[in-house]
Automatic annotation (TrEMBL):
Keywords: Cell inner membrane, Cell membrane, Lipid A biosynthesis, Lipid biosynthesis, Lipid metabolism, Lipopolysaccharide biosynthesis, Membrane, Transmembrane, Transmembrane helix. This is Drug/metabolite transporter (DMT)-like permease. The chain crosses the membrane at residues 7-26, 46-66, 73-92, 98-115. Pfam families: EamA (PF00892). The keyword Iron does not apply. Belongs to the EamA transporter family. It is found in: Cell membrane. Coiled coil: none annotated. InterPro entries: EamA_dom, EmrE-like, Small_drug/metabolite_transptr. It is a multi-pass membrane protein. It comes from Paenibacillus turicensis. The lineage of its organism: Bacteria, Bacillati, Bacillota, Bacilli, Bacillales.
Length: 116
């Protein structure tokens, strides 16, 4: 793979990881705040950190959009669903069913086809 494409996909992966990490911080922050409690949310370091990661992810996304076609880059963000299963299972104790795993397999095949 050529260097420019490798950099583009690296930026895209970085964007996806930042988005998933931001979501994990949102979930942790909301749990600690006791749910959607506005007064606690606006001072939560976890929620503020999640928002900061989203900001960085957006800047990376701008870079991705200058390098890859939208029709290729945007659907590849579906990898966020795949990556999000890991903290869902390990941090939050969520159940990963065979149906979810089948969905992940479909996403992975789709991303592979898009990357070709």
């Amino acid at each position: 793979m050529e260097k420019a494409k490798l950099i583009s996909y690296g930026m895209l992966l970085g964007n996806i990881v930042l988005l998933v990490t931001g979501q994990v911080l949102f979930k942790l922050g909301l749990q600690r705040a006791g749910g959607f409690v506005w007064q606690k949310m606006i001072t939560s370091p976890l929620l503020i950190s999640g928002l900061a990661l989203y900001g960085i992810a957006t800047i990376l996304w701008f870079g991705v959009l200058t390098r890859l076609p939208l029709s290729q880059a945007y659907p590849m963000q579906a990898l966020a669903y795949v990556i999000a299963l890991l903290p869902a299972y390990f941090l939050f104790g969520e159940i990963i069913t065979m149906t979810k795993l089948a969905g992940v397999a479909v996403i992975l095949v789709g991303v592979y086809l898009l990357a070709r």
